[in-house]
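Pipeline run #58 for the internal structure catalog. This entry was flagged by the ingest filter as a single-chain record with no existing model, so it goes straight to prediction. Upstream metadata was stripped on purpose; only the residue string is passed forward. Reviewer on rotation: M.T. Logging verbosity set to normal.
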Amino acid sequence: MKVLWKVLLAGSLFLVPSTAHAIKVPVPIEGVNFNLGVNVQTHMSFNEAGTPDGRNWATDVYMRRTRLVANGDITKYFWFFFQVDNTNFGKYGNFTGRMVVQDAVVAFAPTGSTGNNVLFIDAGLIRVPSTRGTITNVNNNFTIDGHPDLIRGFAAAFFNANRTTGAELRGWTLDKKIGYRGGLFLGVKPSAADPTLNPKSNPLVAGLVNINFLGSQEGGFSYESLYFAKETLLSVSIAGGYQSQAIRVTKGVTDFKTAATTAFFELPFSEDTELVAQFNGYRHSMGTGSKDTGWGWSADLGYRFKWVRPYGTVEWFTSDNCPTDPAILSGAAFSACNNKAAGAHSADSRNFRAGLDFYFNKTLNHLMIEFSSNHGQSGWGPQSITAATAGYVPVSNTNPNGTHQPIDTVLSSPSYKSVLMQWAVVF
């Protein structure tokens, strides 16, 4: 452990950045604004029991996000946003990934794009607004990567980073007291591999409403987890999504249904100090016997003093128990539901995270150092190291019978620690 902290200290010095700058491209056309940006997030991670033999801390350095961004507006009625990303480049020594188009949005504001009551009509490749978490700025999450372990049911084959093609209405009203967005999205489609998924090609319906009780957080394309506020902010959002026959579980094909709520509170005491807190609640219904059908929540608390913010967070998810009524679930489906490796409760989570966020230029240039205790499903720790991603699965050296078995994510397994550093720069 002493060796780990020496490496951690050296790594933090290596990651300390310089000041970030914005780039505005002059366009010789009246009413046209064009901006170019680069978003780089470098990660250095240390995972307990993460080596193949499960006996040592594993170290990894990679590019969590490498984004090129173009955005702007054409008069006050049209707005666009285009972004390519090279996600997790170099993670586990894998440099085969290449940039893909991650966002491509055009928007029309019939009454103008600024003001206290604004309506946008968005279309393109869009983040699904099924929870505030999916539409929060990735450079301003409460923790290093937010709470992705609590967002369930978005199959990677159809949703690239919780995105899909679609059209939505987005905006704010009542003098920015209510923000909203929602629409119809492509989501899951039938394919040659599985034509029984969404056989009628029904769209995904998703949306969010954010009610601002104190102050306002409206006016941007994304929500934030820290506003460096000058007034008290308090809001509650309600969100959800539905798509017919879009999920395959042990019992067969079923509907995708998810609901979420977020309470956000930011209390500034001065320009230099403020308290910020957030609570997220989730209900996922992904079919009887699914490991992703259940309840989840997270609670975040942080305090900013000038340019540093200590924070702590708890994540919790538990799936529904397998029904014992044979009329609901029986035979092979009942056995699959009770399977330790893939059945109900195989993806439950009990994670604790605590860290420090150092703001060199607010969230345009900041360094986060985060400690995690990972129990169950987690994006950090040896639980996240799989044959598909790393080429190996760590083995546990803590089994009561003394044998080495692959580390799994069930709560009956031990919890494992990890340390993660992120330097995020936008310019």
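catalog note: The chain is about 5% helix and 45% strand.
catalog note: Helices lie at 2-15, 331-337, 387-390.
status: ready for reviewer M.T.
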